[in-house]
Amino acid sequence: MSSLCKTYFENENVSLKDYYSDNIYTWCTNCGNYGIAAATKRALVAENIEPKDTFMCFDIGCNGNGSDKIGGYRLHGLHGRVIPVATGAALANRNLSVIASGGDGATLSEGIGHLVHAIRSNYNITFLMHNNCNYALTKGQASASTRQDVPMDSSPDGTPSDTLNFMNFVLSLGASFAARTFSGNVQQMTEVIRAGIRHRGFSVIEILQNCPTYNKDTTHEWYQDRIYDTIEIKDYDNSNFDSALNISKDMSERIATGVLFANPNSVPFDQRLENRQNYSTELVDEVKSYNQISQELFSRFI
Predict the structure, then answer these.
(1) CA within 20 to 30 Å of 211's CA: 71, 149, 219, 302, which one?
(2) What does the angle CA 164 – CA 165 – CA 167 come to, to the nearest 5 degrees?
């Protein structure tokens, strides 16, 4: 076993078994979430991050069915609201590696405002956007990322609305880290997630995945015929914003994957707060327990 491969399964302080869960996977056969779950665990192990130092937030949707399938601190939240939950955790305790997962349905509908302001504020979170181009958990309605020519259960003639190119959208907002990967390539996913975790700021990772049950047109094979890695581009510089914006536009013929853009000068939100510059403690350390507060209030009346 190569040293690189070995780090995916065990490291100095952590191994893959530390992220093991007894709970049985409930995704459809051949769902891309199996690969995403594997890559997430491998990335955490490779970065030598223990479960106690990880906080994973899951949105409603098929991604959320993975919330109890991995060890560590986890929270299964409300539809479209995973980013503010993750933001609170990241600001309260900067020692945690905070990973948030959400689907294209929640993220690009009621969650889109949270996405915009997380990019704007550059919170130190790794956000995995599971893009299967439909609302799969509610049986296949079209989402904002569904291609117009694809018939869905609730729109058999295809959706009349324009398709939203997620990666192009987040780059246009000035994201400090923007990457795209494919659920059928676990090794690439692992390395992209690792890069997102290491980045200081809001790391947006779009994971293209097939939905074998409800999206019959955008299949695993459809992606395989079109995706390519940015390492295939001679002298590609992922610190060049204009280059990233340019290659993000094509979502039909040649779809770029890998780390499209990473700002080497990114300053996360917590480091922009002037009133916190002289503090060595975390916010979570500065909050008294409920028992302490109750005792102090009680003492006033005796």
Answers:
(1) 71
(2) 135
Distance CA 227, CA 229 (A): 7
Of the candidates 111, 93, 89, 94, the residue with the CA atom closest to the CA atom of residue 102: 111
Number of C-beta neighbours around residue 183 at 10 A: 25
Q: Which amino acid is at 6?
A: K
- CA nearest 182: which of 135, 219, 234, 232? 219
Q: How confident is the model at residue 10 (pLDDT cuts 50, 70, 90)?
A: confident
Cα 240-244-249 angle, rounded to 5 deg: 155
pLDDT by residue (tens digit) across 122-141?
999 999 999 999 999 999 99
Query: So where are the chain's domains?
Result: 3-299
Q: Which two tokens stand for residue 139?
A: 């049986």
Checking if the pLDDT of 227 tops 60, the result is yes
The pLDDT assigned to 153 comes to 85
**Does the CA dihedral 209-212-216-221 come out positive or negative?**
positive
Residue 292 has pLDDT above 80, yes or no: no
Q: Which one of 3.40.120.10, 3.30.450.20, 3.40.1440.60, 3.40.50.970 gives the CATH number of domain 3-299?
A: 3.40.50.970
Lowest mean pLDDT among 75-84, 115-124, 282-291: 282-291
Rounded to two decimals, what is the model's pTM?
A: 0.92
Is the CB of residue 20 less than 8 Å from the CB of residue 38?
Answer: no
Q: What is the dihedral of CA 59, 84, 110, 204, to 10 degrees?
A: -70
**CA angle, 71 as apex, 28 and 97 as ends, to 5°?**
110
For residue 96, which of 202, 19, 18, 197 has the smallest C-alpha distance? 197
How does pLDDT run across 259-274, given as a tens digit for each residue? 999 999 999 999 999 9
CB atoms inside a 10 Å sphere around CB 157 = 8
Element of type H or E holding 208:
strand 203-208
